[in-house]
Each structure stands twice: as structure tokens, then as C-alpha cells.
Amino acid sequence: MVFHQVDSSRQIIIGMDEAGYGPKLGPLVIAVSAWSMPKRLTVEDLWTQLDDVLTNKLASRDKRLHVGDSKQVYSSTKGIASLERSVLSLMAACQIRSLNLTEPAEFFTLLTELLGKGLPASFSRQPWYDSCSISLPLKARLIELSEGLIQLNRSFQKCELQLEQMQVDVVCPERFNSLIQQYGNKSEVLTRLSMALVKDFIPPKSVDCQVLADKHGGRSRYLPYLLDAFPDRFLLTERESQEQSRYRDDSLSLSFSVKSERFLPVAVASMTAKYVREVCMEAFNRYWKLRTPEVKPTKGYPVDAARFRQQIDRSWEELQLPESILWRDR
Predict the structure, then answer these.
(1) Non-local CB neighbours of 204 within 8 Å, separated by 6+ positions
(2) CB 284: neighbour CB atoms within 10 A?
(3) Who contacts 234 (Cβ-Cβ below 8 Å, separation ≥6)?
(4) Is there a contact between 128 and 315 (Cβ–Cβ < 8 Å)?
(5) Which class for 261: exposed (0-12), middle (13-18), buried (19 or more C-beta within 10 A)?
(6) What is the pLDDT of residues 88-119, one digit of tens each?
(7) With 0-12 CB in 10 A as exposed, 13-18 as middle and 19+ as buried, what is 39?
(8) Residue 2: which pLDDT band, with cuts at 50, 70 and 90?
(9) Please, what is the average pLDDT of the chain?
(10) Distance in angstroms (rounded) separating the CA atoms of residues 161 and 230
(11) What's the chain look like in SS3?
(12) pTM attached to this predicted model
């Protein structure tokens, strides 16, 4: 990971979050957003610094980008347009190459770039991804995204802030089930995958870095996983409680907190993970609607997932694929 213009007067802030931890259908998505900013600013300052372009409390007729906990920005009743407008504008500000805002983008091309190392093999074994093309944006307008990008760039320049990188890990059911068999429970899988994703974003020891993340289930002790991910670091435990677990060495601090989406970098990661999962579910539902016209779309959560699984049963049997490709064990 290369950070631009990072010197002794600047610091790196990394936010991390997930979407899709609870469903039985569709992927678990983990996302990070990595920022560089002057040391004179704190992460709490970012909402004020970017108040002219971002808000976490969107009011009627407010033209700013809505950024916050993905559950506040998006719901089935609200629709995806606001979430999409914010996420794609931020991706454009991050200079995601496959998103130029002059024409629609192909989702799986964008996803390949966000994954950093290409689509995992499990994607090609899922016909709902392999046979589907999704054009973005789904609901937002390109002109809105272009306007959002202009405003973001102006505000970033004013406060000397840079959104350096956005990246995701998409864990489809087949891989998820395999990891559950290996590690025994979902919390263990989430923590290990999160550490594997974030470790590539940690800058050299000469650069101050702060990692902010939500709690992983009920876990309060993260030090063994951190020592495994960062073997060259001498991390000490500052606090371990139900509200927050915090660790640090001379230049790196890591915090796992309840309601961490109150921090802008975590909120952006939360929304990115949610958006990627929602578009994956859009592809999934489109595929099954073609094969089983009477089936209603699903978000994949347990009760509705069981309904959906029953409705597609005949079509699923025709595919003659392993159940692990479709259904999560936990």
C-alpha cells in the first residue's frame, strides 16, 4: 500500500466495518477506507472539516452526501439511491479507475478493482454472478455523482485531507462455510478476515497510524490476532471492555468500539460494505427471478432466506450444485 504525500506532519486513519454478518444467503463483505490527514486534526474533527459536503444527519432538501452507519443511510423503504450517491462519489474521489462518471460502470469490473487481487474463484462457481452484468449506478444519477466528486475534491483540498484507498473482501457462502469448519464460529472468522484485510494498509513505523473498527460480535480480546497479523510490532493493551478494546505501540493504535460508525472513516467503510453486498444481492435476485418468475427478492436474512430457499427449490435442484455454494451453515 502506497500513501501519497505522507510525511512526519501527516497521519493515516483507517476505518473498517462489515455488512452481511447475519444472513444465510449472499456474501459477507468487509471493507476498509484509508485516509491521510495533517496531525493537527483528529478523527473527531472530520465531520466539522467536511460539513459543507458531508452530513451524518441528513435533513429534508439537504444536498450534502449522507454518510453514517449504513443502517441509517439505507433501508428497503428508503431505497438505495442515497447510499449509492455517497459511496460512488467517495470511490470517484479515491480515484477508482473503473469509475469515471462519464458513463455507467460495470459492477464486477469495479469489484475486481476494489478487491485488489481479482475476483475469488468462488465467484465463477456461482451462476448468479458468472452470468450477470450489473450496470452502475442503479438509482443515483451520474450528474449527481459528478457534482458530489467536485464538492468532495474541493473540501478535501481545503482541509488537506485525502481518501487514499477503499478496498473490500467479499466472502461468498462457499468460502464462509469452509472458514467456519476451520475456525468454529462466525466471530473468529470475521476477526481473522478483518486482520488479513487491514494489515496490508498499515504504513511504515515512521508514519503514525490509527485503525478504528466496530466490535466483532461480543469479542473483547483482540491482542492474539493483532500479534499474529503484525509480528514486527510490540503492541500493548490499553483497554479491554464491553464498550472498547484498544491497543498501541509507538506509532500504531487500534481500537474496536461499540458504535464506531460515529467516526467518518468507519462510516465510509460501513457504507461501502453495505453497498457492495446490496449490488451482489441485486445480481442474485435478478438471476433467480429469471429462473423462478414467481419468487420475491430476498435480503438473505434467516427467516426470509428460508422462504426464498423453498421457493427456488426446484430450480436449485436442476443446477446440481453443492448446497454450500448457496447456503451458509451459520
Answers:
(1) none
(2) 23
(3) 249
(4) no
(5) buried
(6) 999 999 989 889 899 999 999 999 999 987 88
(7) exposed
(8) low
(9) 93
(10) 27
(11) CCCCCCCCCEEEEEEEEEECCCCCCCCEEEEEEEEEEECCCCHHHHHHHCCCCEECCCCCCCCCEECCCHHHHCECCCECHHHHHHHHHHHHHCCCCCCCCCCCEEHHHHHHHHHCCCCCHHHHCCHHHHCCCCEECCCCCHHHHHHHHHHHHHHHHHCCCEEEEEEEEEECHHHHHHHHHHHCCHHHHHHHHHHHHHHHHCCCCCCEEEEEEECCCCCCCCHHHHHHHCCCCCCEEEEECCCEEEEECCCEEEEEECCHHHCHHHHHHHHHHHHHHHHHHHHHHHHHHHHCCCCCCCCCCHHHHHHHHHHCHHHHHHHCCCHHHCCCCC
(12) 0.96
Angle between helices 173-183 and 186-198 (to 10 degrees): 110
CA angle in degrees (0–180, nearest 5) for 145-20-73: 40
Q: Taking the mean position of all CA atoms in its chain, how far away is CA 266?
A: 9
Angstrom distances, CA of residue 1 to CA of 111, 167, 236: 18, 11, 25
Is the CATH number of domain 10-282 3.40.50.150? no
Q: What dihedral angle (degrees, nearest 10) is formed by the CA atoms of 248, 272, 130, 287? A: 140
pLDDT band at 46 (very low <50, low <70, confident <90, very high): very high
Bridge partners for 310 per DSSP: none
Instruction: Return the domain boundaries, the chain.
Output: 10-282
CA 281 to chain centre: 15
pLDDT digits (tens, 9 = 90+) for 251-266: 999 999 999 999 999 9
The candidate with the shortest Cα–Cα distance to 254, out of 199, 220, 213, 207, is 213
Angle, CA 170 vertex, CA 243 and CA 248 arms, to 5°: 35
For residue 274, the tally of other CB atoms under 10 A from its CB is: 24
For the four alpha carbons of 281, 282, 285 and 286, in that order, the dihedral sign comes to negative
